[in-house]
UniProtKB/TrEMBL annotation:
InterPro entries: CoAse, NUDIX_hydrolase-like_dom_sf, NUDIX_hydrolase_dom. Its cofactor is Mg(2+); Mn(2+). CDD domains: NUDIX_CoAse_Nudt7 (cd03426). Keywords: Hydrolase, Magnesium, Manganese, Membrane, Metal-binding, Transmembrane, Transmembrane helix. The keyword Nucleotidyltransferase does not apply. This is Nudix hydrolase domain-containing protein. Pfam families: NUDIX. Residues 1-130 form the Nudix hydrolase domain. The chain crosses the membrane at residues 5-22, 145-163. Signal peptide: none annotated. The keyword NADP does not apply. One of its GO terms (molecular function) is hydrolase activity.
């Protein structure tokens, strides 16, 4: 599984695109996430998968994305290996959500994910690290979205790496060396399979 972590400049700040999954989907219905999904046989790599999924889900053409990097793989709650793909897009991009999959598309400033104001976390049993949650009020629509779990930790991770700032709250990993925590966690989960 690959996620396209789409970053763009929006009026003097750096933002990310996230969306709300259609509530009638079989998995993760009604959750906020980044564009992405499982690889298809025709996909060459994680970047191909992320770009194809972003095109299918929000109408973002692959040639509109300047891919910067892929991050280290992270295992999600169901055991799928997720490879985040980070890229820049133009602020002028206008999403065309796939109505069968996506209920809403919105942008969140990266800075939001290092501020304590709308953040909560706890340490659930059986999980290494903290489970993070943010409440984001979309200024354009007035809709409040909960961004939590894998989406939240990836947003924190990319915010720490891109902004080179430590969050105002405990994140459960060393912000100067996040890769060690995530790779150790991945190896622990793999050893239990």
């Amino acid at each position: 599984m690959c996620l396209a972590y789409l970053i763009f400049k929006c009026v003097f700040t750096i933002c990310v695109i996230v969306y709300l999954l259609f509530r009638q989907l079989r998995t993760n219905a009604g959750e906020v996430c980044f564009p992405g999904g499982k690889s298809d046989p025709g996909d060459r790599d994680a970047v191909d998968t992320a770009l194809r999924e972003a095109h299918e889900e929000i109408g973002l053409s692959p040639d509109q994305v300047d891919v910067v990097c892929t991050l280290f793989p992270i295992m999600n709650k169901t055991g799928l290996l997720v490879t985040p793909v980070v890229g820049f897009i133009e602020a002028s991009f206008s999403p065309r959500p796939n109505p069968a999959e996506v209920s809403a598309v919105f942008t969140v400033p990266l800075e939001f994910f290092i501020r304590e104001a709308h953040h909560t976390s706890y340490s659930p049993p059986g999980i290494s690290g903290l489970l993070h949650s943010f409440l984001f009020l979309d200024p354009e629509t007035g809709t409040c979205y909960q961004i939590w779990g894998l989406t939240a930790i990836l947003a924190i991770l990319v915010s720490v790496l891109a902004l080179r700032k430590k969050p105002e709250f405990e994140i459960g990993f060393n912000s100067a060396d996040p890769e060690s925590f995530f790779l150790d966690n991945l190896n622990k989960r793999i050893s239990k399979l």
